[in-house]
Design goal:
Layout (H helix, E strand, L loop, with lengths): L4 H17 L10 H28 L4 H35 L1
């Protein structure tokens, strides 16, 4: 849900005040854009990887070697998307168990 301009300005003011009060606070709380960027990147990779995988699977009927290579590239792209979204959660969970 998007914030209105006044709400966004207020949030920016709060962030600046927190940063002035404690400059070391932000590494503990990633910004919203820092959390969204990997998800958006993963979505793009997923949308690229799925058709590549399907094309590779179809091409295996014509040429096994080329189709296999393209399928592996598509599967690797999808795997990268999954890791891109999953790794921050895994690392955050491991940090919580260490405390």
């Amino acid at each position: 849900m998007a914030l209105s301009d006044s709400e966004q300005r207020r949030l920016d003011e709060i962030e600046r005040a927190l940063l002035d009060e404690d400059p070391h606070i932000f590494p503990h709380f990633p910004a919203v854009t820092d959390r969204r960027r990997p998800v958006l990147t993963a979505l793009v990779l997923l949308l690229i990887g799925m058709p590549v995988l399907i094309v590779g699977l179809v091409l295996t009927a014509v040429t096994l070697a080329i189709g296999s290579v393209i399928s592996v590239v598509g599967a690797a792209t999808i795997g990268t998307a999954v890791l891109l979204v999953g790794l921050p959660f895994i690392s955050a969970r491991s940090e919580m168990t260490r405390r």
